[in-house]
Write a structure and sequence with these properties.
Layout (H helix, E strand, L loop, with lengths): L5 H13 L21 E5 L2 E4 L4 E4 L14 H12 L9 H13 L5 E5 L2 H16 L3 E6 L11 E2 L6 E2 L1 E2 L6 H4 L2 E5 L3 H11 L3 E6 L13 H14 L2 E5 L22 E4 L10 E5 L1 H4 L18 H15 L2 H17 L6 E5 L2 E5 L13 H16 L2 E2 L8 E2 L6 H12 L4
Parallel strand pairs: 3-16, 5-9, 5-10, 10-11, 11-12
Antiparallel strand pairs: 1-2, 2-3, 4-13, 6-8, 7-9, 12-13, 14-15, 15-17
Helix pairs in contact: 2-9, 3-9, 6-7, 10-12
The structure holds pyridoxal-5'-phosphate.
């Protein structure tokens, strides 16, 4: 039974003396659920094992990339075969061409793609491109959408509906924060006000078309399309940040599913199949501003790393058959059918992404996520761990299914979620 975690305790105690907060990325510290983070040692399919040998069904899946589960044979084969020929060259490589073909097929009519390493970098580059292309300064974003940790994206709203941002992290200068306008999700008056006040200065609107970093906040496609229309009318670019949603619901992005045609798209996570690959893509007239074709600078020692690209190509090749999506939709529908109208929570699901919200009605704006719902999640989290269920350790994170989950695992998840709080 999962639960005792002495090896994790010992490792974390040492890590806390050597690394800030003991971790390489904040949420991993279990700060929002309490207790000691589990140190994972091994993964296979939908199962992971911690350093004490406790087994868990994994619904975090490395925060989204592992859509085919852990250690998928085709991905492992591609990675090991490529690695045997060399880990990195820092030169042009045939894998770049192969992945570019796959990505542009999926995201037509995008004409060009640049590969980078992290989602943060892809967003930074998209914003730089938007500013270069429009010769404008301001970026409009939405509260509750996460776009990585670059300075201008770490802002929260000031007071009012459409406000210039204020730094949400130490080290972000007031000047950088003030180049970002923050609006609540779904607010028609917010976007109208923002464009009325700043329209001629807005270089780009950036959003997660399906916001999945503050729970799963479903947006009305009519509002999304109204936003696109306002952006177009003002000459601002529309950037869809599909780092989570790209290739998640089909061999395409979420934007297409809600009638959006973004000028730029950012990808990450699934694109690298578990290794670090991200991308920015769009029309040639915008992407060809990137150096060396144009004068907008971006570069990376590890960009287009062949081993990482091999994992991405193998993953996308499996996804392109459509079979994994079919399987995940079946699993998601099964989970939803067991939970709908039951228990103390609202269950939000799109395909293989889900969010159990421990409140009556699922919110669609970050501002409406209730503190009580967060506490209900926290109160249950360690019981789920004890039952061998690993959800991301925060009430604001979504859960992911992979094509390797089994019906019995999904049934066990439903049962655990339905268990009343003790
Ligand atoms: N954009 C979105 C929508 C994300 O969810 C994330 C990470 O979770 C990022 C950007 C940043 O990606 P990375 O953590 O690879 O820098």
């Amino acid at each position: 039974m999962a639960g005792s975690s002495s090896a994790s305790d010992a490792l974390f105690a040492t890590a806390c003396k050597r690394m800030p907060g003991g971790v390489s990325s904040p949420v991993r510290a279990f700060g929002s659920v309490g207790g000691t983070p589990r140190y994972m040692a091994r993964g296979m399919g939908a199962q992971i094992w911690d350093e004490d040998g406790n087994a868990y069904t994994d619904y975090c899946l490395a925060w989204g990339p592992l859509i085919l589960g852990h250690a998928h044979p085709a991905v492992l084969e591609a990675v090991t075969k490529t690695a045997r020929d060399g880990l990195a060259f820092g030169t042009c490589h045939r894998m770049e061409v192969a992945l570019a073909e796959l990505v542009l097929e999926a995201f037509a009519p995008a004409e060009r793609v640049r590969f980078l390493v992290t989602g943060t970098e892809a967003v930074m580059t998209a914003l730089r491109l938007a500013r270069a292309h429009t010769k404008r300064r301001l970026i409009l974003k939405f509260s509750g959408c996460y776009h990585g940790h670059s300075d201008g994206m770490l802002v929260k709203a000031g007071s009012g509906v459409a406000t210039l941002g204020i730094g949400d992290s130490e080290g972000v200068s007031a000047a950088q924060a003030a180049e970002t306008i923050v609006v609540p999700l779904g607010s028609q008056s917010g976007i109208e006000e923002a464009f009325a006040r700043y329209g001629t200065e807005i270089a780009a609107v950036i959003l997660e078309p399906l916001p999945a970093n503050n729970g799963l906040l479903l947006q009305d496609p009519a509002w999304l399309q109204a936003l696109q229309k306002l952006a177009r009318a003002s000459g601002a670019l529309l950037i869809c940040d599909e780092v989570i949603t790209g290739f998640r619901f089909g061999f395409h992005g979420y934007a297409r599913m809600v009638g959006l045609a973004p000028d730029l798209t950012t990808l990450g996570k699934v694109l690298g199949g578990g290794l670090p690959v991200s991308a920015v893509l769009g029309r040639a007239e915008i992407l060809d501003r990137l150096a060396p074709a144009g004068k907008t600078y971006q570069a990376g020692t590890m960009s287009g790393n062949p081993v990482a690209l091999a994992a991405g190509i193998a993953t996308l090749t499996e996804l392109r058959t459509g079979e994994p999506y079919h399987r995940m939709e079946g699993l998601g529908a099964r989970l939803e059918a067991k939970l709908r109208g039951e228990g103390a929570f609202a269950f939000v699901r799109v395909g293989s992404v889900f969010w159990p919200y421990f409140g009556k009605r699922a919110p669609t704006r970050a501002e409406d996520v209730s503190e009580l719902a967060v506490q209900e999640f926290q109160a249950r989290y360690h019981r789920w761990l004890d039952r061998g269920i690993y959800l991301s350790p925060s009430a604001w994170e979504v859960g992911f299914l992979s094509s390797m989950h089994q019906e019995s695992q999904v049934d066990a998840l439903a049962e655990a979620l339905l268990e009343p709080r003790r």
